[in-house]
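ok here's tRNA pseudouridine synthase B:
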Amino acid sequence: MTDPLASSGLVIVDKPAGMTSHDVVGRLRRIMGTRKVGHAGTLDPMATGVLVAGIERGTKFLAHMVAATKSYEAVVRFGSTTTTDDAEGEVLTRADASGLTTQQIHEAADAFRGDIMQRPAAVSALKINGKRAHELVRAGEKVEIPAREVTVFDLQLGELEGTDIPLSVTCSSGFYVRSLARDLGEALGTGAHLVQLRRTAVGPYGLSDARTLEELEHHPALSLSLDEALIRSYPTLECTEQEAADLAMGKWLQPRGLKETHVAVAPDGKAIALVRENGKRLSTVFVARPSTL
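and the structure:
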């Protein structure tokens, strides 16, 4: 019997510069031959790297996808600020950054490790009164987004070349590398903005999983089936055929003492549902293989 989820899963795209995430979705709809395509974790047009797209039923999984951490490689340029905190914006201020040293920048970066309060970039996908912040900015409105707590798990900086310094960062969701560039510039009194950005990982998905749009054009295929994506993203809970059938119908099971969301896996290796304990019930969070399929 044909698996009804054979065409459902994730495509991990190595996004090229100059395209919006929405542009990538449009291309994938043509490549994969379906309208049911979505993406998680918007990348700016100037950015490249890992963009996770859901195909068919994989689109419903995106809301549950574990992406607690993201990793980036970037280049920050000191000596000027821009309206967007990156190279795509108009220059706001200029300052002499020729006296900066690698050591000064490394020392300033110490304040941006661990749990920090960060003010998101005004040109972001965050919604304010129902509208994206970047839409309001481009319409000429002044946008002030309050700071919020984010976590920088790892921040490594290279050597200063001219007024540019490369860095790599692993951070929590909600962290903006553009904002880090802006804040480093403020801390050092020269201003700064982002000139390169490449996302190397989103949760458990990295560049080793990613394919370019050109590669996908020639060989359309999922990067991971829905089963593979669920099992990579969550700890597994093995269940019996009867338990799998019950979960497929949205029924709850007896609790097992689980502390977090698990993926329930049937004896044949198929991922049935995401489950989580709620009081005296082990309930479904997302049914990947509903009995109605």
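+1. The chain has three domains: 9-68+204-227, 70-199, 235-287.
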